[in-house]
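Annotators were shown the component list below and the corresponding predicted structure, then asked to write short factual statements about the assembly.
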Amino acid sequence: MALQMVYYPDPRLNERCKEIAKLTPELVAQVPEMFDIMYKHRGIGLAGPQVGVMQRILVANITGDRERKKDEKVFINPRIVSKSGTMLEEEGCLSLPGLNARIKRAGEVKVEFYDLEGQGWEMEADKLYAKLFQHEIDHLDGVLMIEKMSAADLKAWKPLLEEMEGDFKAGRAPVRRRDRKKPEDDEAAE
Ligand code: CO
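Structure shown to annotators:
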């Protein structure tokens, strides 16, 4: 079955995903589809549960450019092993279209992960990659950025969240209103 974008408040976004014990052909076959959905929604990172794949897998391309295959990265069982510093940067989320807010994160992270060949890696990240890892690994733990927003931002975005809750109840993808930005104007989202 084709993968589909999962939007707030779908309860799958609040589940903690299981570790991947074995890279099955089924999972590997879903990776190109995950990238395709990410690009279609103008994202730079996508976590399994955002397309209903309830496993610890992330795909990313921080250029957001589907032509730049060399920048495509797949992270299996990614784990933050150390953090330092802080940053407060704007974030968006493909599962919360139209919403963006500044979120406090660590400034640098060290991440361990496996690639699609089962080889283990360690990566030190700062700036955009550090933000991406923290945002996406939160997804694998069932945590959305709205849980980390300031009370003022949460209040400001409440009408949009309520609108998405209505869309979800009605069984439709979030309706974009005129007063929201068009998808092509969106900032890079995760
Ligand atoms: Co997200």
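Statements collected:
1. Residues 11-184 form a domain with the Peptide Deformylase fold (CATH 3.90.45.10).
2. Residues 151-169 form the longest helix (19 residues).
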